[in-house]
Amino acid sequence: MTYQFDFSAVLAQWPLFLHGAWLTIKLSIVATLLGLLIGTLCAIGRGSRNALIARACATYVEAIRNTPLLVQIFLVYFGLASIGLKVPAFVAAILAMVINVGAYTTEIMRAGIESIHRSQIEAAECLALSRAQVYWHVILRPAMERVYPALTSQFVLLMLATSITSQISAEELTAIANRVQSDTFRAFETYAVVAVFYLLLSLVMRGFFWAAGQALFTRRRKLGTPL
Amino acid sequence: MVFNANHLQFLLQGAGWTLLLSLIAFAGGGLVGFVVALCRISPIKAVRWASLGYVQLVQGTPLLILMFLAYFGLSILGFTLPAIVAAGISMTIYVSAYIGEIWRGCIQAVPRTQWEAAECLALSKVQRMALVVLPQALRIATPPTVGFMVQIVKNTSLASVVGFIELARAGQVVNNSLFEPFLVYMLVAGLYFCLCFPLSWWSRRLERRLVVAPRLEAAAA
């Protein structure tokens, strides 16, 4: 093997990498928060007595979960452009990620909501809690507590999946890598450095979610166990 | 130029390559993943730690980056191999880490008493694994494995970045010549849906059956 590894040219671009990583973080946070919101609403919608709403939510989930994110991103970015709505790549990226992660979150939250025992809700009704109170205190929060581990690993996967938005040239970490790679011709080194970045990000995220779980769910049950 | 039969045929050809790459990924990833699963529950501490490190490393890196690393890494080693080899290798690594963890969970879900009973019957370690634990783990493992196959099919779309002409790439090529993104990508998404939905449905069915069966047994007993 005659190849000489040279990381210096790649590492000299570190401000660019940091910039990309920051955009990846921003993209992940926005997509996580909006995805959680949409997912929770759709999970409630799936259990709705209105057949039309339930059907619509189920179709959304199936359509998204059975097609690749890459194609969804292309559809949003180029599709919107072709009907005259020109949005910046970053906005299209966020939109596609939110739609995608919303579907996965729906399924997870639905599992959580279904695990709430009927008698809990009846008891809440007997105590004259309003519908909003029942949903918030009796259904959503315990449901969230139960599916918290599944939710957080989904959000870590989401952070990794933001790399795919580089394909529509949203300037996140992977897109930066593509640029550095074509400037320096050090492809392997560049992607190795970026891989380390992602690894660190996912470790930090997991640590953050663990700490957040400890702070949010103070009853100190082992997370994910039934009540 | 409008969308015609040739374009459709090109897309279908791409779907064929997607299917082939998925099969390669499942076969290769399953094989390596099985070893990973066994290593993760090995009695030797170093093996356990090494396999845990492997899983964490792969699960903490996006598949897209793995694709690039395999593609450029292979060319560093002096091979000029077709894109399908780079895609196949990175998919194998990716699948092995995820499916290995799924299978480890399934092996560990076999009740502890079964392991102990096998030991009491003086079965060797290999016999215990092959005759007692794995057949039961297989039953538990089927629904999540079929579910994960959906992820495999979808994630082969990322092989497009190393120039492998599978379904997503074929869609890009067709779109570049027509500029009808809505039509083309809807068709591509539809084709992926046709590949994935039966798997999702099957996985759900298996899961339901698995949940119902033990309850019936309990009721009979």
Distance between the termini of chain A: 59 Å
The amount of helix of chain A comes to over 70%
In percent, how much strand structure appears in the residues of chain B? under 5%
Q: Tally the helices of chain A: what do you get?
A: 9
Mean pLDDT of chain A: 89
Spans where pLDDT lies below 50 across 5 or more residues of chain B: 215-221
User: pLDDT under 50 segments of chain A (min length 5)?
Assistant: none
Question: What characterizes the major β-sheet of chain B?
Answer: none
Q: Sketch the topology of chain A as an H/E string, one letter per element.
A: HHHHHHHHH
In N-to-C order, the SSE pattern of chain B is: HHHHHHHH
Percentage of helical residues of chain B?
A: over 70%
Q: Largest interface, with Cβ-Cβ < 8 Å? A: A-B, 38 and 40 residues
Number of strands of chain A: 0
Concise summary:
The complex is a heterodimer of chains A (227) and B (221). Chain A is an all-alpha fold and 227 residues long.
Task: Describe what this molecule looks like in 3D.
The complex is a heterodimer of chains A (227) and B (221). With 227 residues, chain A is an all-alpha fold. Chain A is 77% helix and 0% strand. Chain A has nine helices and no strands. Chain A has helices spanning 8-11, 14-46, 51-65, 69-82, 89-114, 118-126, 131-161, 173-184, 187-216. Chain A is elongated, with a radius of gyration of 21 Å. Chain B is mainly alpha-helical and 221 residues long. Chain B contains eight helices and no strands. In chain B, helix 6 (125-155) runs antiparallel to helix 8 (181-220) and helix 7 (167-178) runs antiparallel to helix 8 (181-220). The longest helix of chain B has 40 residues, at 181-220. The radius of gyration of chain B is 21 Å and the shape is flat. Mean pLDDT of chain B is 90; it is low at 215-221. At the A-B interface, helix 3, helix 4 and helix 9 of A face helix 3, helix 6, helix 7 and helix 8 of B.
